[in-house]
Amino acid sequence: MSPWLNSPLAIGGSISSIAIGVGTRELVVGATTPRWMRLLRKPSAPAEPASIAIADEQCFTEAGVLDALKTALTTDPAPAGQKGASRRSAHIVLDDFWASHAILRGDFRTLRAREIEEVVLAHFADLYGIDAGSVQVRFSVQRGGRAVFASAMSRTLHDGIHDAGAAACADIRCIKLGLPEMLNHVDGAAGADAAMLLFVADTLLQAVLVEDNRWVAYDAQRLFPGDASDSERIAARAEQAFERLASRTSGKREDCRIHLYGVEIDPAPFEGRFLATLRPAQPAMDTSVAHRLMEAAR
């Protein structure tokens, strides 16, 4: 998936690199080592990441994220021997709560990037009533050119992140979103079978329908406290997601395999609803969402 990039970082002076995971209630910042530095010397053991809580009254708000980010950018999680760098760079991965995603199907093989961007903007405008000037969009064309995975992020949040970086003398090297990063790691996992990849987090359930190892459609549903731990409710939501997306696939729910990612879920309620339920190998889930996003940023 395409990262959200600004100007490349010029190498020079003493540089420290940090990774920041942005959740809805906290940010987690950890040290990382740029690739060119790893080639020059053996990296030190990473220090313990730091958690910056978003004030309760500001949770789920851009203002809350930006206030916490200003603190994160002044936090130095580098090992003692590497502290005090004159310049810093930051890699950021945000929870999908802070963006909208879509999978668009069509023939994109002959379209230029600007033309695809216009199609993406029109789609988000039709679907969510989003004004084109209010968002930053990024997209990735699927192999074969028959589908596009697109993301839209609030321009005020995107620009606010870069403004916070400039104020802290930190180069924001890239801003990424959680789902595209996860799809990068599970690409090809479904094989040729009809499958639905189900990503369950604290606040969001996301479904990606796959046929012949190609993206077909995307659905997202907001989760509220207690939803993610209720396997029966999640299974019912998954069934609803498939039915909403069924018009875009030739497959049937009874022939579709579910691949579960995210929080631990009892697969029993999925039996009878889908052909099979699989839980592929994935990172340990015993840390917070923001902490896992920080690890992805590394």
Brief rundown of the structure:
With 298 residues, the chain is of the alpha/beta class. The chain has helices spanning 35-40, 62-74, 113-128, 155-167, 178-186, 231-245, 289-297, and strands spanning 4-5, 15-22, 26-32, 50-53, 87-94, 99-105, 135-141, 147-154, 170-177, 195-200, 204-211, 214-222, 257-262, 276-278.
Keywords:
298 residues, six-stranded mixed beta sheet, alpha/beta, 31% strand, single chain
Verbal overview:
The chain has 298 residues and is of the alpha/beta class. Helices cover 27% and strands 31% of the residues. The chain has 7 helices and 14 strands. The chain has helices at 35-40, 62-74, 113-128, 155-167, 178-186, 231-245, 289-297; strands at residues 4-5, 15-22, 26-32, 50-53, 87-94, 99-105, 135-141, 147-154, 170-177, 195-200, 204-211, 214-222, 257-262, 276-278. The strands form 3 sheets. Strands 1-9-5-2-3-4 form a 6-stranded mixed beta sheet. Strands 12-11-10-13-14 form a 5-stranded mixed beta sheet, covered by helices on one side. A 3-stranded antiparallel beta sheet has the order 6-8-7. The radius of gyration is 20 Å and the shape is globular. The model is unreliable at 1-13 (pLDDT under 50).
Sequence stretches where pLDDT stays below 50 over 5 or more residues = 1-13
Tell me the helix content: 25-40%
> How large is the count of helical segments?
7
Largest sheet: 6 strands, mixed
